[in-house]
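Fold this: Histidinol-phosphate aminotransferase
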Amino acid sequence: MSSPATPPLPLREDLEGLEPYGAPQLDVPVRLNVNENPYPPSDAVVADIARAVEEAARGLNRYPDRDAPELRAALADYLAVESGVRVDPSLVWAANGSNEVMVQLLQAFGGPGRTVVGFAPTYSMYHEYARDTNTRWVQGQRGDRFALDLDEVERVLRAERPSVVLLASPNNPTGTSLEAPDLRRVLDLARDLGPQVAGTRRAAVVVVDEAYGEFRREGVPSALELLAGNPHLVVSRTMSKAFGMAGLRLGYLATAREIVDALMLVRLPYHLSATTQATALAALRHREELMAQIAGLRGERDRLAAWLRGRGLEVADSDANFVLFGTFADRRAVFHALLDRGVLIRVVGPEGWLRVSVGTPEEMEAFRVALDDVAARQSGGAL
Ligand SMILES: Cc1ncc(COP(=O)(O)O)c(C=O)c1O
């Protein structure tokens, strides 16, 4: 007997015809496309994680510790060492990657009838967080050299009265950091230019996404320094980048009590598995070893930027573990020519620009050789 014809399923209209987001995961020798840390964890770290996961496995019949206090305390300790700012562990919040942290923020502060703003070029997932939480996404423009244009910020905030302002610093894909006085000004504007809710004026929540914070250059402050006195500020971090734990999926934030309380309302119960918590805690015990790679990666980044400039290319100032460079009449042709030579980078950012992540010295050498070869085959060496 044939089953009756099933009508189409009720997919949300705004999702119809869309493709899932995701950078290509290609098996090529040199992968420099998603800003990972190129160094796998050492044997000592792997052994400690294995022990911790084994221990956690003995209790897997039980739900995990719902509020992850031990992990949040370890993250607070890490932030104090990394940035000099001590945050109470109860004001640190963790989830499965900073992607989940930010979706939770929009679940709590966005939603139908509300607006989240960002300033392009910026991280392409932001508009997806907005879409998935039914929050309106409005994008202003960055100014010269991809810096925030404060007149533009004021114009957009006055016009839109957003609930949330999302700013990545260092920004992806440009690598540029927010200047501290600029962030102070944004925080002042956000205090006054948030939405009306139930007839009362509210502050906009300002999220500074410091996914690449640890790579910032000497003297560039973290937004963590501005938490005191700004209860509408959230600073988001991740273990995916400098910490070399992208596969773990652990993001976190530091903020004020009212914001953590709001996140507790929307998080799914037991959202952080026992094995995730155990792995993150074990990795954090090795923070000195993991952090030791950062200086080397920063040096490699600066050498890469100088080399690209030496080739006559434009390079955005980078405080991150990647570099945005250009400009090319046909950036896709350059991307594919590099891929043909076994080097995967990313077509992202404004037209004409490409982004390359910082890898090991050997990977960077392979990138330089490949790019020189591409140049040599195009119009007599000019890129
Ligand atoms: C600016 C920015 N924020 C957040 C993320 C997401 O990081 P996570 O792995 O913690 O979800 C990325 C990842 O590339 C990013 O570039």
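The chain has two domains: 20-41+289-381, 44-285. The domain at 20-41+289-381 is CATH 3.90.1150.10 (Aspartate Aminotransferase, domain 1).
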